[in-house]
Amino acid sequence: MSYQEISGEFWEIVKPLLEQFKRKKSGGTKPLDFRTLLNGIFYLLKTGCQWAFLPSCYGSKSTVHEHFQRWTNAGVFAEMFRLGAGKYEELQGFKWDWQSMDGSLVQAPTR
Fold this sequence. Notes:
mainly alpha, single chain
């Protein structure tokens, strides 16, 4: 499964959502670029890899995970979804007359 990093157009849309998380105090190590961290989170979500196997080009697994937790708790990803759905509606439109959903529930193996 290949992974394509987020586009510049998408980044410009979501960048303002992350501004509130910028470090306010100086000192310590130089903070990672939020775009790199977001690419790491999306890489993990798309490929399904474990946090321990996240490629180091996205930063340390603990740093990426910490930002994922903070942004999730603050509703950043829900807002990204809302903005993305609005843009899709504007460009393509949803076909509300027909929708489909698939899923299954199975018990996990207990060994």
